[in-house]
Automatic annotation (TrEMBL):
Species whose genome carries this gene: Propioniciclava coleopterorum
Tree of life domain: Bacteria
Residue ranges, annotated region (Disordered): 1-35
Protein name per its UniProtKB record: Uncharacterized protein
Stored InterPro entries: MmpS_C (IPR038468)
Amino acid sequence: MPSEPSSPSPTSGAEDPLPGPKPSVEPTGANPRLPTVDRAIRLEATAAGRGTVTWGQIEGPFQSATFTGTWSRTLETVQFDSSILVVVEPAGAPAKLGCRIVVDGTEVAARTTAGDATITRCSANTRLGG
């Protein structure tokens, strides 16, 4: 009986072309089929007055909160090689809005509306930060 070709071993000597933390071997998090990575990801939102922020990884789940002025949340374990999204809306009339994502101390996404707006968003990849 012919044998199946073997897959190369992950430790076959090939160098990883992408820098940064490597995924853990325990698949946990929002989607248990995807590995996670430890990163310090700070999500920030601002609104002139009250705002609503929705945040999460593309794989879900998303969460929402209502805030006044500024809001922030730090994520420490996220899905590896995923996109994270922050969406900010005014909780009322259009307003000046802003969002920011900082990965391991480096700002990788930021947006501030020039005037009154109904929505703004920031996104970043969890593997490379941007």
